[in-house]
Amino acid sequence: MNALLALEFPPVSHLLEWPDFALKGNEYFAFNKIALLSVLAALFSIAVIWFGARKAQLVPTRGQTLAESVVEFVRENVVMQTMGAAGLGWMPFLTSVFLFIFFCNIFEIIPGIQMPVTARMAIPAALALLVWVLYNAVGIKKQGFFGYLKSSLLPPGVPKALLPLVMLIEFVSTFLIRPFSLAVRLFANMLAGHLLLVTFAVLTAAVWSATPLALIVPVMPSAPSNTRWYCGSSRSSLTCSSSRSPQLAKMSARICG
Q1: Where are the alpha helices (DSSP H) in 75-177?
Q2: pTM surpassing 0.85?
Q3: Which secondary-structure segment (H or E) carries 51?
Q4: In sequence order, which residues have a C-beta less than 8 Å from that of residue 151 and are 6 or more positions away?
């Protein structure tokens, strides 16, 4: 089918695996395009806050306006809607994570880069593990070890007969599945978007190539069985007529020109 339509989709390895250009052959510290984009995303995140806060003024500059807009967005749409006023102390951490993920994702639509860092599992997994550790550490600090286990594994209002099953489900979902699910959500979304953009790019290139893809031939609806059509042509004009209906005659005149 691909040969028929003159389409050639690159293998997935060409879309996600990039050659090393520094420390080649090193299994753990080799530097490739993904590593470079990760460093750039971190530097851009630092730059947004630094340029916005270094010379705060009553009449904000462009950099200060950008930084304040990001902080306000995180405060109003992330912290206040999920954690309330008690979560305002986490604003620096959440703002940093927001900016870093934003720049990692936005690389997908930048010409010449076109690769989201989060389409590789390493970055989403590291971020998910960091958030999961902090989440549990804060819970244990606020409630104590056994109090945190009780609040996590024993939801209020559960019948006693269902407690063993519910405790098992909550333990697996909270302490085992949650870091994996957090990582997969970001990774799968960005990988799917990356593959879709590659697909659209291949189809666009095929459409604009010199090889014809398809020939679409319009089919005129069939006329009633008791109607006969007569079409005549000349160099200057086409004439059509119907022996039965004036409306069909008008239609034929429009079709034949």
Answers
A1: 80-82, 91-106, 122-143, 145-153, 163-171
A2: no
A3: helix 33-53
A4: 139, 143
What is the tally of helices (H) and strands (E) in the chain? Answer: 10, 2
- Locus of tokens 């189809």: 203
> CB neighbours of 207 closer than 8 A, spacing ≥ 6?
213
Contact assessment for residue 13 and residue 94, using Cβ atoms and an 8 Å cutoff? no
Angle subtended by helix axes 122-143 and 145-153, to nearest 10: 110
Of 55, 63, 36, give the one whose Cα is nearest residue 120: 36
pLDDT means per 10 residues in the chain (257 residues)?
Answer: 50 67 72 88 93 78 86 92 88 94 92 86 92 92 90 84 89 89 91 85 72 53 51 42 50 50
240 φ/ψ angles, rounded to the nearest 5 degrees: -130, 150
- Is the separation of the CB atoms in 136 and 129 below 8 Å? no
The Cα 34–Cα 40 span in angstroms is: 10
Which residues partner with 184 through β-bridges? none
Other C-beta atoms lying within 10 Å of the C-beta of residue 143:
14
